[in-house]
């Protein structure tokens, strides 16, 4: 039992020493490489999330190029604060708009309108609004029937028979 405690203790001490070595040897080049790597990875992911974290790492690189005597712990703390604030501001002022969001907003503008069921295949109806066909769900639908749009689920209309 004492041998196990000694092994666990030495393993934990090794982790602490390794972390201290990493924090003591951080410099602006580490942050610059991390930031550029995150920005390059972002080019392939298309999520925009890593862009702001990468920009934060590059900002930390510039800060610590100008003030190289700052401790590694302080560098990490400043990086975390800048990353959180840039990500929050980006999400607030530059929200990601997808095609699905645009379709959903356009679909919601048709609530209350009447349209005609053009086809039904495998339980999924298609209704025509103007020159466009939209997917629709509802009970007791028949081809040629006039229905009213009552709700939107994703970009599919929820319809009921018109009275």
Report on this structure.
The protein has 163 residues and is of the alpha+beta class. It folds into two domains: 2-93, no CATH class; 100-161, OB fold (Dihydrolipoamide Acetyltransferase, E2P) (Beta Barrel), CATH 2.40.50. 56% of the residues lie in helices and 21% in strands. The chain contains five helices and five strands, in the order αααααβββββ. It has helices spanning 2-24, 28-45, 49-66, 72-93, 99-108, and strands at 114-121, 124-129, 132-137, 146-153, 156-161. It has a five-stranded mixed beta barrel. The protein is rod-shaped, with a radius of gyration of 28 Å.
The domain tally reads 2
Biggest sheet overview: 5 strands, mixed, barrel
- N/C terminus separation: 81 Å
Helix content: 55-70%
Share of β-strand residues? 15-25%
Global outline: rod-shaped
From the alpha carbons, calculate the radius of gyration and give it in angstroms. Answer: 28 Å
Mean pLDDT: 80
Order of helices and strands: HHHHHEEEEE
The helix-and-strand class reads: alpha+beta
Number of strands: 5
Spatial strand order of the main sheet: 1-2-3-5-4
Helix count equals 5
Low-confidence residue ranges: 1-7
């Amino acid at each position: 039992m004492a041998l196990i405690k000694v092994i666990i203790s030495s393993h934990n001490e090794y982790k602490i020493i390794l972390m201290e070595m990493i924090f003591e040897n951080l410099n602006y080049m580490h942050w610059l490489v991390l930031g550029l790597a995150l920005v390059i990875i972002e080019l392939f992911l298309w999520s925009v999330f890593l862009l702001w974290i990468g920009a934060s790492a590059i900002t930390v690189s510039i800060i610590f190029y100008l003030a190289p005597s700052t401790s590694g712990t302080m560098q990490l703390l400043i990086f975390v604060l800048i990353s959180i604030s840039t990500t929050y501001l980006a999400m607030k002022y530059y929200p990601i708009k997808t095609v699905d969001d645009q379709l959903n907003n356009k679909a919601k503008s048709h609530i209350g309108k009447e349209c005609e069921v053009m086809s039904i295949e495998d339980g999924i109806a298609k209704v025509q609004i103007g020159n466009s066909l939209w997917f629709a769900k509802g009970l007791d639908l028949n081809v040629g029937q006039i229905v009213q749009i009552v709700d939107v689920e994703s970009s599919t209309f929820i319809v009921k028979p018109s009275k």
